[in-house]
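Inputs:
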Amino acid sequence: MHMSDALLSAPVAIVGDALAIGLISVAAVIIRKRYKNVNVALMGVMGAFVFAAQMINFTIPGTGSSGHIVGGILLSTLLGAWPAFITLSSVLIIQALLFADGGILALGWNIINIAATSCLVIYPLIMHPFLKRFKKGYVNQTSPKKHKYPAFVIITILSCLIGLEIGAFGVTLETLASNITTLPFGKFLLFMLSIHFFIGIGEGLATAAILLFVVKYKPDILFQNERMERSGKGYGKMILTFAILAIVVGGVLSWYASSKPDGLEWSIEKVEVSENQEMEDANPLHFKSEEMQKITSIFPDYMLNNGSENEEMIHERAQTSIAGISGALIVLLITILLAVLINYRKRKQADR
Amino acid sequence: MKNLEIIISEIRSVETNAGITGTKTSVNPCGSILISIIFLVSMLTFSIYDIVNTIPYVITLLIVLIITSIPFSLILRKSKYLLLFVLFIAIFNPIIDRNTAIEIGSFKISYGWLSFFTILLRGFVSITTALILVISTGFIPLCKALEKLRLPNILVTQLLFVYRYIIVLLEEASQISNAIKSRGYGNKKFTIKLYAIFIAQLIIKTYTRAEMINMSMISRGFDGEIRTRSDMKWKRRDTFFCIIAIVIIFILRIVKPFGYIDKLL
């Protein structure tokens, strides 16, 4: 489901956009470095294909409803993780502009929820290791091993399902962090996850069936992204590990982060309270600066700025989590960007 | 299955509207993108109970719609799916939050309803802003502007490619769908197996097409970057436009034209 501008507050939206732009720049650098002669035409036309495929609905057996694919896992299988991420992002941007799906400011979170989770997290973790073995078995065998097909279907369903559920979880967190809905965190989450459970299974089944037919009719399509990739060092896995660590640290551990002032703040407070009470009263500048800091900081003490107050613990936790996650991710992105920059300069110097 | 021809004409509607004289602006696209973002951010900084200050944003956009002569029906048609999702989440607010916010005589409005309507208005504003942006500037100038704003070239190339081939592939899909319909002997069930064959065929056709495009591009000296002729220069009237827009946003956000209503209540 697309996140919408209407369900976001300004700071949450800006954080999402900044993260998405950072990820896209990292992806551009990685594609330039790791993929020799990227088939830009193939990426672009496949993006248009995903667009067309989203317009075609299939009936879900047993129910009267119908669904369509999102295409993250399908694209990653056909193009590889990073090119698929860029392609799916461009599809999302076009949807936001031509179909008004989501909106301009919500684009950042949409790219993260839909493109980044399925292409950069789920595909390398679940789908890619399996596909590698599947392809090896396929190449060595003159006739395809039929007994591997059920495993193929299960893995595809699993990765589509987990990808969608993480996306739904993201939508829930972002909506709550923006303080848009008064729905309690637990109920909202349950609601979103259960809806996306069925969508995920539908998408997984469809993706698996499509891929199996592709394997049957024209298997070389499935093998071509490996040809594009340069063998050798890859820092995709390293970045992935750090991203997961960041999410865990920022999302879970931040609940236990002390809301009391840290050492320095505490000591300054103490000194000021004990000694300079009168002086502080007389010094309006101090108050002004504190006020300014309160206004300008996006996450005052890890809580997002917003008008109304909600007492619920879980709600607070969600807010703390999202502030923590985005903080950690921003730090991670800055580090990666720096590393890439330094590497680039070194290589340039070496070239001279 | 949806009628694919309708979808094709839906996509073309943006382009045909962009062609109408008076719709297209000659403002620098970089300026329009930045102004749209500032406009939306300034609206989102209001709290969701602040319906009084959100209404001026809607009015401003309606005025822009009239000036640019973009048909209102187009906006409504495009927004129906998105507003459904927004509605779906916002509808819980009036159910849960029943504290009275405003009392006019015996008529009470709860905080839940206030936030509900504000969210819907926000949805409308965001959709309309995006559509005005793309219709008034056109998609390809927007892509050029994104490149000027330092987005990676590969993303911009992708945008141009996807945009170019959407309609081609939709037409291809509609051909396959017509073939299925005409040979299906009245079998109207579109099962998952049939669907998978459909999409797999489409992938294979897409792939062959992409190979041909790639080869022809390489043979014409393509090196991975699409170079657009940059005829975008920042002129004096662009500065003028930005200043006026920022003044309007300043009035909407800081001066709050409807702020006095808040004080009355």
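The CA atoms of residues 81 and 124 of chain A lie 7 Å apart. Flag for discussion at group meeting.
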